[in-house]
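Researcher: Structure prediction, please.
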Amino acid sequence: MAKQGSGNESMSNNPPVSRAESTARIRKLLAEAESISARTSAEIRRSEAEARKFLAEAEQAETEAASAKLLLEKERRSERESLASNKYYHQSVKACMSQFNIWDRTEPDCEVTLIFNSPGGSVIDGMALYDFLMEFRGRGHKLTTRAIGYAASMAGILLQAGEDRQMGRESYILIHEVSFGAQGKIGEVEDEVKFVKMIQNRVLDIFASRSKAKRSYIAQHWKRTDWWLSSDLALDLGIVDTVLGLPGPSTPHKGKAK
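Model: Predicted structure follows.
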């Protein structure tokens, strides 16, 4: 009984918790809970904002990539349509070279048809274009040249740059001696004549190497005159390989070289 009494005294030694203290503790716990909840909500909102930002950036990147792809496809389609339509009738050597360089970069080993309906032009610029076209062929492109209407003077020379040289049935080629203009002292004019004769010899080499006609034959027929060739004569001499519009495949005459 004494021990029991002693135990009861020990228990009664704990000071009783007042109602005010209990209320304060509860309020403290509630405040801490609210603080934790607020921080959690803020973190959730921040995470949601970052997620929306990343999603928006991803959608923007996807849209930009799709737009770039569509633009690239459009450019490639335009290039293919340009190749198919043969719509380029360049009057500028620089513009022609620029277009061919674009095709060389965007369509490796593509086939190109270069159409001439031209009275000719500068022999210096024309020979530069001739070298360019031969180099273009050397990079693996198939080049077809075609005369529609007429290919006169320098245009007739450029026609020879094609792997397959074509002309319309009612088209014509004009071949003549290299023409030039010169002024100044006699020595200066003589130097100019010497230079032009050098160019003319190279032109003769081009025609002779691509045809069945000898240099002497060509030189004889274009001396001091404009030598017009019909499609029949051009085919017979081997100046062209194909005449368009003939009934059936056209084959160059296999006769004796002139």
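Model: Strands lie at 111-118, 142-152, 164-168, 172-175, 227-230, 242-244.
Researcher: Thanks, that helps.
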